[in-house]
Write a structure and sequence with these properties.
Elements lengths: L17 H14 L5 E4 L2 E4 L1 H10 L5 E3 L8 H12 L4 H30 L25 H9 L3 H13 L2 H8 L5 H7 L4 H9 L1 H20 L9 H25 L6 H21 L1
Parallel strand pairs: 1-3
Antiparallel strand pairs: 1-2
Helix pairs in contact: 1-2, 4-5, 4-6, 5-6, 6-8, 8-10, 9-10, 11-12
């Protein structure tokens, strides 16, 4: 019997493991394969778990080739079939959405490059079009794969970004915990910033330990963001500076009086005051 690998569009969903997979094997043994396995580009587009279960149950699988209907893409077909069949939490859908975001990037990049080329063309009275203007459908700013993936999986864009943090920086145990619905993706994204051993310790402690780890990360980040406390003024130091300043003013005014016995001009008086202050400032710098 010929075997087929999983298409990349099918691989964005986690495989059935444990009891759910055993239940599928038992159902196929008892009733046969109800839904044919869908192929696309020589690989399984929908039905990876059914193919595995057929092999485990000793039942010959049936295959159909995918054909687009009403403009539906192969990716949309895979998403629709799996989302209809599975009951995924928002965190689980966010993890899937981040994988979808990766699949959307090549097409988005091509559109972005096309938009940048279009941005170099004149846009009214000889002015170039702004390729970063999101109101321009061909602009680089108008392509947001995270938002597009979030829309397809019915989750918030922030959840997709959090899932990206988990998949990029989380240990495999943390990623798996979110994918099976044991941990919230928002908490996991915070924990993913911890050292690997601390991440594993949080996952081993369960949902509560992950939540506590996330809280600790947020608290530490808030503390780091606080401005450093201003040092309390030293009264003795302030009095010393005041004394030196007054002494300096007296000396400079005495010099000015020797030069102007009748009356010190206003300009010369200001110069005397500035000179006294400057001398005190220099003494503080070199102290």
């Amino acid at each position: 019997m010929k075997t087929y690998g999983a298409h990349e569009f099918a691989s964005i969903f986690p495989l059935y493991e444990g009891q759910p997979f055993l239940d599928l094997v038992a159902d196929i043994k008892a009733h046969g394969l109800r839904d044919a396995i869908t192929l696309y580009e020589g690989k399984i587009l929908d039905g990876v778990n059914r193919a595995r279960a057929c092999e485990a149950a000793g039942v010959a699988p049936r295959f159909d080739e995918w054909k687009p209907l009403n403009g539906e893409s192969a990716l949309d077909f895979a998403l629709s079939r799996n989302l209809h069949r599975r009951h995924l939490s928002e965190s689980q859908r966010a993890m899937v959405a981040d994988k979808v975001r990766e699949l959307l990037r090549p097409a988005a990049k091509a559109k972005q490059e096309e938009g940048q080329k279009a941005g170099g063309k004149a846009g009214g009275r000889g002015r170039p079009k702004d390729s970063t203007d999101s109101s321009n459908p061909n602009s680089a700013a108008s392509y947001d794969t995270a938002a597009e993936a979030a829309k397809r999986l019915n989750v918030g864009r922030g959840s997709v970004v959090a899932a990206g943090q988990v998949r990029a920086h989380g240990v495999p145990e943390l990623v798996a915990a979110v994918e099976r619905g044991a941990v919230a993706v928002s908490a996991a994204a915070e924990v993913a910033s911890l050292p690997k051993e601390e991440q594993r310790a949080c996952v081993a402690g369960g949902r509560k330990a992950v939540a506590e780890g996330a809280k600790r990360v947020r608290t530490e980040r808030t503390e780091r963001a606080k401005p450093a406390p201003r040092p309390e003024p030293d009264p003795e130091s302030a009095l010393e500076i005041e004394y030196r300043l007054l002494e300096g003013v007296r000396e400079e005014i005495a010099k000015a009086r020797r030069q102007w016995p009748v009356g010190i001009p206003k300009k010369s008086l200001i110069v005397a005051l500035r000179t006294a202050a400057s001398n005190v400032e220099k003494s503080e710098v070199t102290a």
